[in-house]
Amino acid sequence: MNWIETKLSAFDERIACHEAGQSWTYKDFRKSIHAIASKLPSTPATIAIQTETSIEGLAALLAIAQTQHIALPLPAELPIVEQADMQEIAAADYRLTGTGQTIALVEQASPERPKIYEQLQSSGLVLFSSGTSGKPKGMLHNLDALLDRYKSINTRQDRSLLLLLIDHIGGLDSAFRTLFAGSTLVIPEARTPEAAGAAIAKHAVNILPASPTFLNLMCLAHTPEKHDCSSVEIIAYGAEAMPAPLLQRVAEAFPNADLQQKFGTSETGAVRIKSENKSSLFFKIEDRDTEWKVIEDELWLKTPSRIIGYLNADESSLEADGWYRTGDLVEEGSEGHIRIIGRASAVINVGGQKVHPAEIETVLRDIPEIEDCRVFGKEDPITGSAIVCEIVSQASHETRAWKRLIRNHCRVKLAPWKIPSQVTITQNLNINARLKKA
Fold it and tell me: Distance from CA of residue 135 to its chain's centroid?
């Protein structure tokens, strides 16, 4: 991994990161990498990263890559119970904790080393999917293969806000795409619209990578009106499907910004794509290292950075010839463009009819009083599943009035079996640590 040291040293006097009231130069960043590497064991180990700052967590990842260990990033924002589950599944031998001069490597008792680790011939990275239904699903990456995709990135001098955590493929892609270009990461004091707006204004952030859910929160909080966000030139959205009405709202809230869709999966890493245009949700995969195909409306990917396998889950989505069945349902457009419809696992079966929650959510967002919504299925003894919608609104309608309004609105746009039969009004939708709807 000598290329990393060579690349970063060329930026020594530049600012690598603003975080927690401190500015880190690239020289500081490299010193942190070296200091952490000197603390790591001489024999192969799995190391949980629990540093107090994201920039030091990123330094730890690169130190682990250089010393050929396995990294398990565990940002402080994750619930303690979830962190404990992840350490157990990954059989973490050590925890790297603290900040600055207090960073320490703590040895801990760990379960038997997973057999899948024997397939790793280089440094490794363990990432986890959401653990909302039982134990989180752990996956093993070849960390060298992931990092190699940033080797030839062009030098830039941008200022990019880091909202996604460094245990998420989108967060890692945002961070590494910034650092290996010699640009500056800006990490807000909190992952809230208010803190994000303040950080954008203070540091003249020009790249804003965020999930659609977080961008919606920024619009609802009137962040661009309360803070000077005129510096934002690019909004890179991804991690979940973007509703068309929200895309329009974001474009109006950030008139100076080019809206660029991003795509990737935890299993394959980030994939380079190009949106059809600023207002379109269709995109084309333009990644020389990636093959793709659509089988029965599901997107399949083949990349050199596909995971080696899962630590604790069925591997039926991983084909022996290197393909990964993403579980993302897509609509095919012209000239090789595709649009993400939603997750196959989220499809609701209503009396034998397949219903995509995203389609209903898009229709519901056309109702002016609805600020946000979530549609999901609930077990029903007659139809198998009933369609439930949670809505966020400041309107004072009673539940019965909401049901009537929603039914009347949807009946001219949706088939009868797609109309929600249950309505719940809430102040806020549940949002997980990845800034997506839970």
Answer: 19
